[in-house]
Amino acid sequence: MHPAFSVIFFTVVSGAGYALISLLCLFNFLNFGMLIDKNTFFIIAITSAVLFTMGLISSTFHLANPKNAWRAFMRFKTSWLAREGLLAILFYPILALYLYFIYIDMQINNFMLMQYYSFLIFTISTVIIYCTGMIYACLKTIPQWNTIWTPINYITIGFALAALIFFFILNLNGYDTTSYENYILSMIAFSLATKLTYYFVIRLPKYNIADATNAAVKLKSTNVRLLDVGHTGGTFLTDEFGYKVAERKLFRIKILSIFSGFIIPFFLIYTYSFIYENIALCSLAIFLSFIGMISERWLFFAQAKHVVNLYHGVENV
Amino acid sequence: MATKQDKISFKKNATTSNSFEMPQFEDRDKQTQKHTTCYMCACRCGIKVTLENNKIRYIEGTPSHPVNKGVLCAKGNAGIMKQISPARLRQPLMRKPGSERGTSEFVPISWEDALDMLTERLQKIRETDPKKLAFFTGRDQMQALTGLWAQQFGTINWAAHGGFCSVNMASAGLYTTGFSFWEFGDPDWDKTKYFLLWGVAEDHASNPIKIGIGKLKERGAKFVSINPVRTGYQAVADEWVPIIPGTDAMLALSMVHVLLKNELFDWEFLVRYTNAHYLVVDTPRKKGDGLFYRNEDDIPQSWDLEKKCLVNAVDPKIKPALLGKYTAPDGTPLKTVFSIMIARYMDDEYSPEEASKICGVPAEQIEKIALEMAHVAFKETIEVDTEWTDWTGKKHDKFIGRPVSMHAMRGISAHSNGFQACRAIHFLQVLLGSVDCPGGHLAKPPYPKHIVPPIKPGKKVVPGQPLESFPLGFPTEPEDLCIDKDGNPLRIDKAYSWEAPIANHGLMHMAITNAVAGDPYEIDTMIFFMANMAWNSSMNTSKIREDLCAKNEDGEYKIPFLVVCDAFDSETVGYADLVIPDTTYLERYDTISILDRPISEPHAVCDSIRSPILKPDRDVRPWQTVLVELASRLKFPEFTTEDGGRKYKDYKDFIVNYEKAPGIGFLAGWRGKDGEKSLRGEPNQNQWEKYIENKSFFEYKLDDNLKYFRGVNKDYLEFAKKSGFVGSTKPIIIELYSEKLQKFKLAGQGLYDGPQPTKERDQFRLSRFFDPIPEHYIPLEHRCSFSSKFPFYAITQRPMFMYHSWDSQNAWLRQLQAHNYMHMNKKKGEELGIKDLSWVWVESNTGKIKVQVKLMEGCQTNTLWTWNAIGKQKGKWGLSDDANESTKGFLLNHLINEHLPCADTGSPVTNSDPITGQAAWYDLKVNIYPAGDDEQFGVYPNFEAGQKVFGQPESKNVLRYNTKKPVRLSRSLKDIITKGGFEK
Amino acid sequence: MRLGLVVDLDKCVGCNACAIACKQWNTSGTSGSLTDYNPYGADPSGVFFNRIRHYETGNYPENKTVHFPMSCMHCEEAACVTVCPTGASYKREEDGIVLVDPEKCMGCNYCAWACPYGARELDREEGVMKKCTLCVDRIYDEKLPKSERKPACVMTCPTSARYFGDFDDPNSEVSRVSSDRGGQDLFAELGYKPVNKYLSPRDKVQVNQHEIREPNLVTKVKDWVNKVVEL
What we know:
The complex is a heterotrimer.
Chain A: H1 5-30, H2 38-59, H3 80-103, H4 111-137, H5 149-172, H6 181-201, H7 209-212, E1 224-228, H8 236-241, H9 247-270, H10 279-302
Helix pairs in contact in A: 1-2, 1-4, 1-5, 1-10, 2-3, 3-4, 4-5, 5-6, 5-10, 6-9, 9-10
Chain B: E1 8-9, E2 21-22, E3 31-37, E4 46-52, E5 55-61, H1 74-77, H2 79-83, E6 93-95, E7 106-108, H3 111-128, E8 133-137, H4 143-153, E9 158-159, H5 162-165, H6 167-174, E10 185-187, E11 194-198, H7 206-219, E12 222-226, E13 239-241, H8 248-261, H9 267-273, E14 279-281, E15 301-304, E16 309-312, E17 325-327, E18 333-336, H10 337-345, H11 352-359, H12 363-379, E19 382-384, E20 388-389, E21 395-396, E22 399-401, E23 404-408, H13 410-413, H14 418-431, E24 441-443, H15 511-517, E25 525-529, H16 541-548, E26 561-566, E27 578-581, E28 590-592, E29 604-610, H17 623-633, H18 651-657, H19 687-693, E30 697-701, H20 714-722, H21 739-749, H22 760-769, E31 792-797, H23 813-816, E32 822-825, H24 826-831, E33 839-843, E34 848-856, E35 863-867, H25 884-887, E36 925-930, E37 958-959, H26 973-978
Parallel strand pairs in B: 8-9, 8-25, 11-12, 11-23, 12-13, 25-26, 26-27, 31-35, 32-34
Antiparallel strand pairs in B: 1-2, 3-4, 4-5, 6-7, 6-27, 10-24, 14-18, 15-16, 17-18, 19-22, 20-21, 28-29, 29-30, 31-36, 32-35, 33-34, 33-36
Chain C: E1 3-8, H1 17-27, E2 36-37, E3 45-46, E4 51-57, E5 64-70, H2 79-83, E6 89-91, E7 98-100, H3 110-114, E8 121-123, E9 128-130, H4 136-139, H5 152-156, E10 162-166, H6 173-181, E11 197-199
Parallel strand pairs in C: 1-11
Antiparallel strand pairs in C: 1-10, 2-3, 4-5, 6-7, 8-9
């Protein structure tokens, strides 16, 4: 699949944004030993809103006919993209009201209401990330995406990034985050685990050229190969789906993404409290993780092989 | 997008109850429909063109048209893009004074000036030495007009392109059964049960072959395809026979061997309809050997089994012997033709085991196919109940059909042994009794014709006078050759000389080379019409391009004046001194005449016209009109009245009023004063209108008793004579044995009472290759000593969606194939370490090219092939300089030499069939090896970019063709929001 | 109604007539124009609804070549319809034709991701997805003679390898030919239930061989006897 940068940026940034507000509200809901002051709360909330808004705007860049973008949630009944779009739009007023309630200290008189509301925000924003992942996972035509591990990874990776940002902002505002480190580290570790599980699950090709051209061959095991694709230039299909990357390059980027996205940030946080309490290291962790997740998402697209490639001479996908 | 929606409600299918409304997608009131004839190739299907806002909305097949019956191939469907191609020439052009030929530097010239210039020059040539005009035509289908024009001018140096196309196929049939394949004859698609396709990738019977194959498949008829490559039609064959190129005669004759060995031939057919029983003089190394034994009245003889004596072979009441050796009363030893055949073909040389070594087809398969054909012919015979009378007067109550049919084309033809190979295929047909019978190989009127039509090629050139005969003809003996008293060729292409005696279609591929070499003489003016000689239609392209610009010591071009007529900016246009721009096929009147290359069906005499669908948007004129204009100006006798005035106003007038013979004109339909006569009749001044009224074609269906066995069908022969197809009602007896060829053979052996070749080389060729019965011989190029260095055969195929060099200027078709690959057998490629899609060198004795290779299964092990004519010169055909056609596309032509590379003695000889002069394109032998790591990209050789000629528009980057604003079908918002998933 | 096509791979000779007829009809029809990029330059490409691909099976010399026309299958459970967020992609209830409403399409390409058959192409000049409409602008046109109310590809196919009709009608040509020859769903395991059916290449036609002459009766020419045949 041709990795469109706007889509990569969209999913990573909006995933981080929704996960961040989700994490914040979960934190609020669970009422960890320490409460956050309103300023910090709003900084985190606004950061998350900026992130997911940037993401949403970026997602419109890959549209060929953006003037119809306003119709994008009409088919929420069947389309994950429409569902994501609808929830994303509805999220704004819901979140705005919540933030207003925080601002006016609603929890003082309506503690249970705010508890439920926090949980609602947590749920909706997590579901939005799930929908984003399902946009890809529901497609049987791209075997590498067609697994529950796709939306799971969108969520865990979003949370890993969000956790780093959360950690950073708390530290920036002077909180002692030592007791949270384990949770942050487990979220990063967990996301790496889900990522590696995903790579394991998709390791084998699912379809071959004989499956795709079954009508032409009586026995599926007969040696089938493309003789002529029927055009000497490219087509929309080859432009969109024919993206080929050398296996070596894919492998190198995979290593880069794992180290930059998960392992190095893990160690930076791990050593944070007892080696070096430096906020700059924390921002480095976020930066590296972001690079790593962008690469991972790029890989997600680049290594995806649409079954239509079977008709274009690729032997299996 | 607001659109006017004139909603039309309609009645729905009964299975649902609610009706719904559709917008009016097509505004029929704004559209007009016209019928004409396609010309994207030479199939000439009938098309219906819908116009809207003065543009072409849609082109489709005419349902009632006899050729295509409503279907249309990819080329026909792409006519719009041909019509709007930026490669169309826009006005007459003259080479800029002071510029070099070949640089495409032109200045515009008015039609008047162009015609004046041409008339003046041609007049001078005509008055001094008419043969200094060499006029050759390419992809055209109007030889009756151009040939007449050349004859009237008085030059013998005219031919169409058949010499480098398929003259072997045409001539072999004409010299054997009186008709051949393609426009001469067709398989009986409706009734045949077994069909062999020999050497056909795509052919001008484009849609009829497809329609026919569709019918075969429906009926469960067996389809065997004999072709080194499995693409196209071959894909749907039941059996694919990957034969070694140039060995088809061996395969055919080996099957003849099997049939003879098992006595599986149609004895009655041979006796009644062929010359198998004729007696041949058997006096080896003496004069007269191998000729028919004739009595004092010059009639061939046969041995009557009852009377036990010699009788006239052409008498209707004889009972001739098919076999045996006999002695004439004067003691001459004789044997029957059939005995000669048996002695030759039942020899082990033609056994399947031996044949297999040569043609690469397993012996069991050769035998199997022969026995399958025999079974179908003799055990699955069909009958059509109709009363008919044969030439002896005997009445029959049915036609017996041996339902085995065949079709053969360039894969057989384009070899230096193609004439004999094609004859061999006809032999198979004849032995099986499947000639012009139900289910077999059917002739198409005006064929069959007598063997051969009594036209001798013109040779007497007299200044200011027409030729005594048509420039092309059918030689039957050495006396007919166009040679001077010393045996030197009279024609510039050396057709009808000892080099190519039976060159029925000329040798257009030699014209430039010979003119530049001054061999046999120099010419003054060369006119090319619709022929791309400076590119894909020549062998050895680079050399030809140099030849066209070659100069004498005095600085004059060796070809002093070159006129090119074409509709598009081809590579050859760049070399012209005068460019005559033609219209497209949708912009002119034209005739597809029985006098030319007919479009008849087996059981209907047909012809058709073109009429202008659109007016040209540029200053172009149809070539036919220009020819009639020049003919009038030059005062050709046929074009001039008795008092010296102009006889024909224009082309339309000429077509209506010209009569080749009383009542016979170019168009056979609606003749007679009121258009009430068919085939023959006085000119009808409203003939064009009648055709246009009738969808631009004329179809005359034959009565049932005239449909089969026409060469020996009394009623048909009378009908054919009346219609002007044949000159006599004598039967057309199939010539298994060609006495005509034998005469040439004797001349080669020095045993002929008449002209004989003096050069050793010619003596050898005539005595070796002019076998009166077909044989397989190794192609000429393969005999050369270097041949073993080049172990691969290299051939081209025609794609179904392109026609020669046309269609790279077509925006839709070139998306399918903008560059070509050299295809190779996968296993062989891997053996040689050649990777798929890598760059390789392909080398012949003449040159080498660098191309990209593609490996495939369906390719004979030692054969390489590519698509024909895809490669183009940079900048031509309206294409940009970086178009694939010039950066990755290539021609095989650079590897081919127009002279045989190993001519043993004397002057070079043409790389063609020694009998007909057919260009031997597919004799090419090459070697293939990987290119170096630093040589990976880009074809070799490269040619300098050709400038766009004056007046050509720049081509656009984005094309959005339509004839109107589209009428959209909308989905309501309510539907969008309320509809769920696919609930059941 | 369940309208669709049957493509007969036993007869398809790969001539591309259907592909070009489709292009020609649709560029001036309801989906028009169908853009061409670099039409006279390097690597020309353009919007086509129907493409012919060519495959080989088996090994030389028992290999077979199959020509494979592919266009929208108008699936019963079309994923391209399910995933479309704006509702531009839809399947008509009346006749099952899957269409794109260009006025609603936002050009996100999602439907193309969902289509395994490559049936949809983006027309970059308009920014909308385009695809086979089963010639909806021909099949209901009462101003066309009844025999011509068929998709352009079906009308033009020279070998009659394409059929059009209603699969819900057991007597229609498509139903009959599909049941006679075992019409196949292409890539059925993906579960989209394509309505278009493909007919596989038939088994090779078998023909008997004529008996050969008994070996002990063969072959010397001297043994042959002339038959008396009157001309």
